[in-house]
Every structure is written in structure tokens, then in C-alpha cells.
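Dear colleagues,

As part of the handover before I leave the project, I'm documenting each prediction I ran so the next person doesn't have to rerun anything. This entry is a single chain, and its sequence is reproduced below.
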Amino acid sequence: MIDLIVRKTPPAGLRPALRGSLEAVMAHFGVEEREVTVVLVGDRTIRALKREHWGEDAVTDVLSFPTWEPGDPFVPPHLGDIVISLDTAARQAEARGHSLTREVALLASHGLTHLVGHDHPHAEGLGFEEGATGPEWAVFHGAWDAARAALPDGA
């Protein structure tokens, strides 16, 4: 189940596309019976969260807050929260020449990949795993492939 909390209103059509793509990623990881919360916010909110939890005073595109530790034999019903800045996502989508819906789906797939216990090396300025190379990025590419396949045409 996906609980979508909207603190910044997205364009029409984004919500169902986000749900569908994230459901596909959950199925990809075999966690479709679990719960995830996705919160859509603006830059001010995500900057405050990053400062509070990571000690960095900067905006970012997506933050993940898992509710369990990888390797723990008990996986709780709620995997965690994914917070996405629609402001940053819109700038990134424009710079990359694709839709905001596609960018948000990408960010959500990235966040969910973290929630299920995967990490990647720090990639200065990358923030977009389609351009990342190396075996440590393969799980992120797989999640994005699942999300992208579930997006409606034109997204």
C-alpha cells in the first residue's frame, strides 16, 4: 500500500502515475504487501529535513527514512517514508528534457530502493542513476526499469 501525502500540489495525472510506477517497483522487490509513505513537498521543507537529519543545509531531490535495518529478520509492515521535493524534481526534469511525472517516478523508485536496504556510493552532482555506471548501481537501474515500464505513455 502506498500512502501519498501531498504538501505541495502536483500537476494533474502525477499522482496515479506515481502510484502505478511505485507499485511496480514494490512488486519488483517482492514487497507489494508492505506499506510505504510518499510525501510530496517543496524545497523549503526538504531542506529543513536534510539539515535536521543529515546536518547539511541544502536542498535535495529525495530523502528516504527507513523503518528497519537491512539484515534484521523482522521486516515491519511499513518500510518507511520517501520525501520528494517537487521544486527540485521540476528543475531536474526540465534540465533533462522529460516530464515532472517521469522525474518523480524515478526519485520514488530510487527512494524505495534505499528503503529495501540498498545503498550506492556518493556521486557528487549525479542524483540520477540512469547516468551512473558500475555494479553497485545495478539494483537502482532494475528498480527504475520496473517503474518506467509502469508509467503511462508520454510520461
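The CA atoms of residues 91 and 97 lie 10 Å apart. DSSP finds five helices and four strands in the chain.

All the best with the project,
I.
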